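Format notes (please read before filing issues)

Several people have asked whether sequences and structure tokens are stored in separate files. They are not. Every record keeps both together, in the order shown below: the sequence lines, then the token lines. Line labels are part of the format and must not be stripped during preprocessing.
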Amino acid sequence: MTDRSGYAARIAEVLAGEHGAKVPYPIGLQEVEVIRTVPVGAGLLRITFGGPDIATFHSYVPDEHVRLVFPCEDGVLRLPERDGQSLEWGNPRPVSREYTVRRHSIADNELDIDFAIHPGGLASEWAIAATPGTRIHIAGPPGGVVVPETYDKFLFVGDITALPAIARWLERLTRTARGWAFIEVTGPEEEIEIDAPEGIEVRWLHRGDLEPGTGDALEKAVRGVEVPAGQRVYAWVAGEAGCLRGIRKVVRGELGIGPKDSLIAGYWKRGVADFDREE
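Then the structure lines:
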């Protein structure tokens, strides 16, 4: 069984501080198998993974990501190699896609990942075709951003690709937390139940017929946020990289939330495969 006690002290230290910080974990490589699949709203497909390797998986905070490793175009499965506490990806680099850890249960020996379903996506098409017993390798997570709960308010902004992470955040916050969560989806059919604190305003923004990553509904919602003088706000923002430019300006400029008190991540970019940028 993996010793997890060594990370508790560092996580507790960050939680007691003023700003968030990334806490690294040993980067694992686990071979897992699909236990079950279930739709989550009309836009997400939840896959629950199991297997003995789940016992070596590290998961402590909402902001964690893993990479699913797929065969290359020539059909060969190339895996990263273990290198101490990290992984060496080599050249040619194995084909992989990054996803949020939605749930990890040591007691059940299970790992949940929610896939945003869209045509043409490598991981999306794999998820649709996956059945119980399908096997795959998962690398990571390399760590997670630990955020103190001492902020006066929290601001969460994202499209459906960020919904699994936002949902995990809202479920993990103290029940007295306050703030806003703005989530862009196609329509009400993609809304899901979220166990959010009563003090968090969860607002669903419907994109309708607009192509994903082309609207400004999230930016408009963020422009409507008013932060009382003297209050500290933590902002977590993720989605299509182009849409984040305007939101970033509002968060940094109008709201005055700096890099130490925020994470802004481009989860994807229109026309670009396996895009991921964060600051």
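For reference, the curators noted about this record: The mean pLDDT is 92. The helical segments are 5-15, 122-129, 163-172, 217-223, 241-254.
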